[in-house]
Design a protein that fits this description.
Layout (H helix, E strand, L loop, with lengths): L2 E5 L2 E8 L7 E8 L9 E8 L2 E8 L3 E2 L35 E4 L5 E2 L3 E8 L22 E7 L4
Parallel strand pairs: 6-9
Antiparallel strand pairs: 1-2, 1-7, 2-3, 3-10, 4-5, 4-9, 7-8, 9-10
Length: 154
């Protein structure tokens, strides 16, 4: 089965699945589409509570093989912020046109609660042997994008 990653109606690329993937957990490498815009590292999480169904997005700094023991999350503001209620008419989360979705080759959208795309920059001098198994189209400017998705529905 061929899976593709989309941001709204824009194709980001095909997903080269890793053997460790399962029905409730997908692991792969993005093969970026030639027309895909720049690909940031990010995580999107679906929040479903009574009265709330929103997709939240969080930035992540690229994973650099030579800097493995540093924090992956992009730095957050250290300033205090005032929380204010969201008006009922205002939508929570990221707009539909930037939400990530994974589609099967028949066009059906697969349901996942978390979609995590991390830019990984392999070490130039000592590449991981698994990288040699990935198609060369997985690399863009020396980086690859790892894709993880899982569902809490079991």
């Amino acid at each position: 089965m061929t899976l593709t990653l989309w941001r709204g109606d824009h194709l980001l690329g095909a997903i080269h699945l890793r053997v460790s993937s399962a029905a409730e957990r997908l692991e792969g490498v993005l093969l970026p589409a030639a027309t895909a815009a720049p690909l940031p590292s990010l995580s999107q999480v679906r929040i479903q509570l009574p009265g709330v169904d929103a997709v939240m997005q969080f930035p992540y700094a690229p994973g650099i093989a030579d800097e493995r023991h540093t924090r992956r999350r992009a730095p957050r503001s250290q300033n205090w912020v005032v929380l204010t209620p969201v008006p009922p008419a205002e939508k929570l989360g990221v707009p539909v046109e930037v939400q990530l979705r994974i589609c099967a080759d028949d066009g059906a959208t697969l349901s996942f609660d978390v979609d995590f795309r991390l830019e990984h920059r392999p070490a130039a001098g000592s590449p991981n042997p698994e990288l040699a198994s990935f198609p060369t189209t997985a690399f863009r400017d020396g980086s690859i994008w790892l894709v993880w998705a899982h569902t809490n529905s079991t």
